Amino acid sequence: MIEAHGLTKNYGKKRAVDDLSFAVRPGVVTGFLGPNGSGKSTTMRLILGLDAPNAGDVTVNGKHFREHPAPLHEVGALLEARSVHTGRSAYNHLLALAQTHGIRRRRVDELVEFVGLSEVARKRAGQFSLGMGQRLGIASALLGDPGILLLDEPANGLDPEGIHWIRNLLRDLAQEGRTVFVSSHLMSEMALMADHLIVIGRGRLVADTSVEAFVHGASKKLVRVRTPQATELRELLLGPEVTVTGGERGLLEIAGLSAEQVGTTAAAHGVVLHELTPINASLEEAFMELTRDAVEFQAETTLQELEEEEVVA
Amino acid sequence: MSASTVHAVTRVTQRRVFVSEWTKLRSVRSTRYALLAAVVLTIALAAIFSGVIVTHWLHMRPQEKAGFNPLEASLVGLNFAQLALGVLGVLVISAEYSTGMIRASFSAVPKRLPVLWAKAGVFATVTLVLMVPSALVAFFVSQSILSGQHIQIAFSHAGVARAVIGASLYLTVLSVFALGLGAIVRNTAGGIAALAGILFVLPGIMHVLPQSWNDAISPYLPSNAGQQIMSIVREPNTLAPWTGFAVFCGYTVVVMAIAAVLLVRRDT
User: pTM (2 decimals)?
Assistant: First the structure.
């Protein structure tokens, strides 16, 4: 169980995490979703006590992380930025971490094999690919058999087989009753991995909901129609729950009616249709819609603005 | 994933962090290179300098012969050893910051201070265990070479044993001093620059000051104070051997205290 109350963190004048409150429960995979720069990694560092909050509080299993006598047994973490000495072998990296808790070598051997690094465990970690580095990070997160797993973008750099592997691993860990908190900036990835979602944008909580409810609430259905009688059809369809947009070159997008309803109405009034297409907004679009206001770096600079900047420069 | 191999829940102890830091220290190449350099330079330079003196002794002028100090010939390599050990001391902690390892270290030991104490303890122990025999070997090798011209000094001579063992003690404390600087600066280049500035540059630029200031300040500079323990000739405006060494230990305590406070307070 991870509990955050009013968590706030500033870096200089920039507010990275803003009055964030949430709880991550055991037994399910909780996705931590937000665009790049929205404060996910900062929140994870605050949970681990690597950074101190300016306001608010976060506890794991009822205590601050640093107050636990066996921290690796409470929380296993894979942080987004690499956290491995590049000159040390994977095996010695894990061994040194294990020794802080008196965890035996057998556990290290077992984990090296489990994450599939047996052949390269004696190589220096600096020579590892991104995917191998992620596997090493997962091994170190599992060292202390923790009740809580904190994984920052674990799928980064993994091949499809690796992504499949980690998805199943997280599910298994959650089924064993562990708390699994996994961040990503990709909604599609989260939809496959997570049961519950905590969505943030610009450091603020945007949504705290089940994946099912998020998908249901977010995916708005549209019907696209192409007709030479666009104006006429618009008049016929408009109602209190219905919005119609477009109109250029006979193309309309209708929200609030099914394709069947649109087709029936058109036929009843003799309106000719050249196209009638039901459109499901993708999850990715729903997520972008939800966090649009909260995205920090938007590519909205126009060519004209760029030219103006050049002139100024 | 079975939990079969993690039987009892085991807690973090200072002793366990010590073992962990020993694993970290011995499992990177820079440690081996720096320690090898310190040992080889200590012994080899003593032998080479003594050899050069012995072969030139008959051609040396009387005042050169009068100024010759056989102990200095034995300890000349330690000047280089302190550079190798100092750089390694900075690296022991700064490399954790540059590689991001520090986040893993502090996720395992979130109280943080046990990591600093263990690093300092392990590195000081390794330095002491290596440098006491190295300094002794350097002394006896170089003195046996110098005995070719009967210009050697005996280990039983007043102050010699203190100076030879003291040289290893100085290097041990210097290792911790460097490690503390590394923990404060958290950056390899910056840490080495700070170390070199304090130990090597500062004493050299003191003569720019008025003589009275120079005389008042110079004895208390870290390296000047610490190195008195390696000397059997007391020059003017220097501290007594053990007084100087105590002053150097004092600086090291201050540096480590600052490092400890910052380590706990700062974000990682």
Answer: 0.86
